[in-house]
Amino acid sequence: ILNVEQSPQSLHVQEGDSTNFTCSFPSSNFYALHWYRWETAKSPEALFVMTLNGDEKKKGRISATLNTKEGYSYLYIKGSQPEDSATYLCASRVTGNQFYFGTGTSLTVIP
Amino acid sequence: DAGITQSPRHKVTETGTPVTLRCHQTENHRYMYWYRQDPGHGLRLIHYSYGVKDTDKGEVSDGYSVSRSKTEDFLLTLESATSSQTSVYFCAISERTSGGGTDTQYFGPGTRLTVL
């Protein structure tokens, strides 16, 4: 079992604020780091997959970075909007094709 | 859309009864997964499959069995349901992202199971 941790557990921000959260994972046997966006009553939706140390990915106002040597990834949201409200999950994939998920960061954007 | 469906979407059953959940995919993906989602635990892997009749245990496999007799269907069975198995169950497939790179997972809509 892999211990993947996310912080903070929940976050409330005002519309227009920028925010970021952290995913920590063990560096050993690392293969890839995945970020998902999960809206209430829906299924998780893939945002990013990163594999290399120093990787950066961007989709609109959301971006992510990866540090495999120290075992962390950051997810950034610039200019948060109410529609960004969701739980953001990260998952570490190790060799062998198993995915280990964190418990998520619940983001609420207040209009 | 990775063409994943789950059935049933909701089920209420009694302790001790057998329950089978079905995950169906239409796009011939090799890897399929069953997760359960519980408050404070995120998604936890129950079992996964890497091909027809090829399955392996995840971190919370006790009390569950799976079968994959054809590529498109991955069945999760609770032989004798217990109240601790009340949860939301998600099926997922993994698919290689376009342009190379690594697999990403796509999830089905989930099955809410209540064991009384």
Cα Rg of chain A: 13 Å
Alpha-beta classification of chain A: mainly beta
The end-to-end span of chain A amounts to: 39 Å
Strand content of chain B: over 45%
| Average of per-residue pLDDT values of chain B | 91
Largest sheet of chain B: 7 strands, mixed
Q: State the major sheet of chain A.
A: 6 strands, mixed
Number of E strands of chain B:
11
Give a description of the structure.
- The complex is a heterodimer of chains A (111) and B (116).
- Chain A is 0% helix and 58% strand.
- Chain A is mainly β and 111 residues long.
- In chain A, strand 9 and strand 10 form a beta hairpin.
- Chain A is globular, with a radius of gyration of 13 Å.
- In chain A, 32% of the residues are buried.
- Chain B is built from no helices and eleven strands.
- In chain B, the strands form two sheets. In chain B, strands 2, 4, 5, 6, 9, 10 and 11 form a seven-stranded mixed β-sheet that branches. A four-stranded antiparallel β-sheet of chain B has the order 1-3-8-7, with no helix packed on it.
- The N and C termini of chain B lie far apart (34 Å).
- The relative contact order of chain B is 0.32.
- Chains A and B meet through strand 4, strand 5, strand 9 and strand 10 of A and strand 4, strand 5 and strand 10 of B.
